[in-house]
Amino acid sequence: METSIRKHIEAIKNGDVKLEEFVSEVLERCEKVQSKYRPFITINKKPDLKKSKGKLAGIPISVKDSICTDGIQTTAGSKILEGYVPPFDATCVANARKEGGIIIGKTALDEFGFGTFSTNCAYGAPKNPHDPERACGGSSGGAGCITAAADFPHIAIAQSTGGSITAPAAFTGTVGITPTYGRVSRYGLIDYANSMDKIGVIGKEVYDAALLLSVMSGYDPLDSTSSEEKTDDLTSYVGKGIEGMRFGIPKEYVSDTTDKKVVSGFMKAVQKLEVAGAKVEETSLPLTKYAVSSYYLIAISEASTNLAKYCGLRYGMQQEIVGDFETYFSKVRTAGFGKEAKRRILLGTYARMAGYRDAYYLKALRVRAKIIKEFKSEFKKFDALIAPSMPILPPKFSEIDKLTPIQTYNMDILTIASNMAGIPSLSVPVGKADGLPIGLQIMGDHFAEGKLIQIGSSLEGR
Amino acid sequence: MMEPEVMIGIEAHVQLNTKSKMFCSDMSEPGDAEPNSNTCPICLGFPGSKPKVNAKAVEHGAMIGLALNSRINEKMFFSRKAYFYPDLSKNYQITQYEIPLASGGFMQLGETKIRIRRVHIEEDPAKLVHDSGEITSANKVLIDYNRAGVPLAEIVTEPDFKNPRQVRQFMEHLSSVLEYLGVYDPKREMSLRVDANISINGGERVEIKNITGFENVEKALSYEVVRQSGITRMGAKVERETRHFNAEVKTTSALRKKEYEEDYGYIFDPDLPMITLTRKFVDSLKANMPELPEQRAARLVKDYKISDYYANVIIYTGKPMADFYEACLKLENKPEPIASWLVNYLLKSLNWRSERIEDSKVKPETFVELIRMIEKGEVTERYAKELMKQYVDTGTSPKKLAAKEKFALSESDMLKIVREIISKNGKAVSEFKSGKGEALQFLIGLVLKETKKQADPKTIKGIIEKEIR
Ligand SMILES: [Zn+2]
Predict the structure, then answer these.
(1) Is A64 among the catalytic positions?
(2) What is the pTM of this model?
């Protein structure tokens, strides 16, 4: 079966694809991939095939399980939402369906997005198709996993708060686009940290990601933070060339703690960019050192309020009612949430408390404003900033088990600042080391997705 | 015994009468819809749903701010007030914290100035239905989310009230202001609720939650004054706590102790970006502000030369009453008698029936008929009062009522009746002529009976004497 989206679209145009046969074959292959690498929480056994025209006609789409799908179980990777079937589609899913996209399943993630390796998923962590003893990254690990493993045409709807698209894209050797905050409606996304959550895409090729992102983008009256900025056809930027562009490499992003093999893979790709006509210089983002701590303060403050609604009253997990409502809520939440979710609720509640609020939550908001300014001034000098996507190669599950929470949080060092600033970034695979993929990320100004696609595609296939 | 020094501050919650809820498109007035039918993923707090601000509610809130002389803040945020309670679908309430819609302001109550601290808008929680009817004794609670998300404006005062009576007066005035602004429906159940903080002689503050009805507000606070005075007189200390007012028995009872300030862990609601209320927006609201009750009362006094007392009663009974008064004046330009009959008799009859003027059968066209009859002397004052009662009961035109009941006696009508009685009672007439006083009383009695007591005996006596002599 053809895996290229472009060729698949061509085949459909020529009438070479019988949709029902094709889809049942795809679902069979999903089951096989599932038994090997576990990318899904739910496989949609009866996808809706009624809409056969549109930009995504006949294209299998997977959806991160923190994004609501009408009629298909949506758990956000948590036991507390086991069996929850949303009564509505997230706007991005509705847009994909309208254009003929076929929803094949819901992909695994760290519970509510809380993690960097998808190991905090209550339904089992997805395994890296490049080495099943290693993680896919997170939190959109299932999306990266199925994109890498699929032996059929497919594009994934993923989501990032602090790096949850870039990490799995880098670790699974796929292309991930984290768009500008507000580019894609968040309506129907189960919130982690609303002021930073972005729905994006993971695909095998830049073209695939650009295609799905174009369909999902645009203003949505249901999400007050969605942008009215016009979205053009992002696929038109693929292969446009980068002659004369200027790129900056923030020196804080290539440090002593970055894996040497990652650095060398990255530097080879930089040479490719120079050969293609770009000018590359070193630059500096001095506020980077404050990014991780302020990101986590904002994220957990918001997350701890977002998670308050899960109390076993209207949906999701229920328990026998004994005692007053506080007893009942505690019982449900104790049984339903995983360890990392509980940790973030506790930390987040603490950071919001009177007396700490000013020192933590409010100060972190001020740091974010400064980080945005810092990026903005860089984009006056550069078309984009480039850096390794992740500071390490995909780690083994046995190594992850040994990490302390702080060490894990620091894995996000290269993705957090751009995610906080709400600027777009694109991670593209740039070769391998020891058989494991290396990712390069391109960060651009707000709403500069087109340019990132232009740059990213110049690193493909050569 | 010395009067205790009382300090009261209140938070008044008003349900705004917008078409839809604060953050979704469900109806803001569910009425008696089936429980939980007026809901959607947003007000039920379903995963993935997001709130969307109802611009009309912002406008309503800003108008309230302007009417209370508050400053409208240019940049406005919504915040999450987080606490676990079954009436909150998200276990946080979307409200305003750091920067409310409006800050400062005051309301003048005669000589007393009550300072306003802030006016903000927020969402109403769901309705909890306690199994046994009372919050303190129920063992099961049902939740009706029909009300969840109805827009509320919260008006917070400084602790400027010196007695419960002032609080009631404030609430009556506030209700009137809201009605004039057209932002609230006084007929809706629970549309205006009060949380009150009360302390005496500088002691601990006690909060009484969720009182509805102006009379109840005064009663609850008066009860608290007595209760707290009793405690201090015994040498004990009033404890800081939250209490509940039981409207049935008119007492308050402890809900929970409050050892420390509750910590709601406020954060900005990240789903709702900052809203800028431009100068242009505020100016256009100001330009389109309706006449407010205070202004209208002053105008009634100035234009119609009625007393402050009449003007205030007419105004603060509610907008429909003032509209009624002015509608009457358009038909019959008699400001003083109309005000007097309205305040002294019509209002009493309505109150006795627990009826609002707008729901009653009383109409300006028919009400002025009565005034005209009184003014022309077609009915005596005494019978006009009786006629008023029947009119309020039935809504029948007073003219028709009078004709039917022979209430309205023109002099010629009266003469006709007297002459008829004289002609039919020759014996009594001759007895009277021969000087028997009882015969006159007998004749007067007959006339009274015939006219159903609508004329007074003295007048009848005069007519009979004139006719016979
Ligand atoms: Zn609703």
Answers:
(1) yes
(2) 0.89
